[in-house]
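To illustrate the input format used throughout this study, we show a single complete record. The first block contains the structure-token representation of the backbone; no residue identities are included at this stage. The design step must infer an amino acid for every position from geometry alone.
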């Protein structure tokens, strides 16, 4: 888990007779979301960026995010008037929708404050899921137990809310990952297949790079125009992209989204995730059939790449 400790006294006194060096902490949450949505909210960098800050006074800046076994995530936790707190998270085990294990090292101004082993276990409960997080903590330059309890408690509350407004779409496309990625990240081809059945795209500008954007109109079968603006925050070739969805050019954001691409023996598993800005927007989207429309979009992608 990232960036939980900005509200703790990270520069407190060094461990002494009255301070605890080691602690095992357990946190449990029951979440009103399926286990696969909870897993994506827990591991996908775009989703983690939404819930990582424990409270509104904290700003989280991700410097690196490689969510695979052996990969690491580096982030800075910023609070006005305080030194930045650096968190390095390394993924050791990733069993989708079941378990993750990672190490976490917290430092401030070049001094290591703590090291921890974090195990997250997810179990399915029909349309709900349960998350149990165990933290084996070693406080090094300060007694960090109270900060971890506060930070993880707040972070997991945020995570639960994010998971409950996460929409997840997945499809295995029988085409190589390079082909699927190429169809998605090509400014000539993306507008051809993007959108549900019967919809078309009218592009104003398109720049499919980190920091770029796509301003376009979705045009429905009845001629209704839906202005859209995608702002690309992260692009990792043939692995994933993260972007914000806005209602029209520079309009209000209604979701943080990501797409990941996984090789499956020559086929490609595409995961499209969206964290809606509010629970009301999530329920509204479900109500007008966004899940089915999203599956139609991935179906158009599959037809596009397999027909060429």
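Output of the design step:
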């Amino acid at each position: 888990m990232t960036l939980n400790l900005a509200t703790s006294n990270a520069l407190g006194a060094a461990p002494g007779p009255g301070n605890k060096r080691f602690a095992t902490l357990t946190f449990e949450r029951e979440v009103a979301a399926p286990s696969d949505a909870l897993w994506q909210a827990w591991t996908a960098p775009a989703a983690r960026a939404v819930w990582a800050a424990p409270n509104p006074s904290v700003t989280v800046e991700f410097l690196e995010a490689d969510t695979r076994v052996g990969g690491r995530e580096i982030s800075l936790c910023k609070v006005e008037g305080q030194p930045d707190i650096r968190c390095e998270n390394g993924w050791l085990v990733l069993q989708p929708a079941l378990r993750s294990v990672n190490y976490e090292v917290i430092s401030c101004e070049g001094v290591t404050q703590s090291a921890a082993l974090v195990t997250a276990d997810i179990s399915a409960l029909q349309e709900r899921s349960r998350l149990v997080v165990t933290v084996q903590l070693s406080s090094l330059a300060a007694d960090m137990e109270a900060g971890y309890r506060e930070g993880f408690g707040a972070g997991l509350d945020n995570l639960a809310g994010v998971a409950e407004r996460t929409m997840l779409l997945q499809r295995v496309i029988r085409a190589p990952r390079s082909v699927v990625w190429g169809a998605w990240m090509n400014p000539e081809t993306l507008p051809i297949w993007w959108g549900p059945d019967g919809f078309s795209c009218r592009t104003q500008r398109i720049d499919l790079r980190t920091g770029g954007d796509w301003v376009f109109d979705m045009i429905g079968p009845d001629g209704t125009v839906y202005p859209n603006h995608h702002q690309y925050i992260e692009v990792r070739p043939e692995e994933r992209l993260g972007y914000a969805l806005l209602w029209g050019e520079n309009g209000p954001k209604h979701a943080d989204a990501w797409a990941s691409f996984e090789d499956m023996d020559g086929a490609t598993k595409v995961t499209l995730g969206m964290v809606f800005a509010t629970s009301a927007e999530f329920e509204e989207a479900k109500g007008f059939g966004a899940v089915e429309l999203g599956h139609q979009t991935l179906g158009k992608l599959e037809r596009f790449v397999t027909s060429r």
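Structural context for interpreting the output: The domain at 22-164 is CATH 3.30.530.20 (Alpha-D-Glucose-1,6-Bisphosphate; Chain A, domain 4). The radius of gyration is 21 Å.
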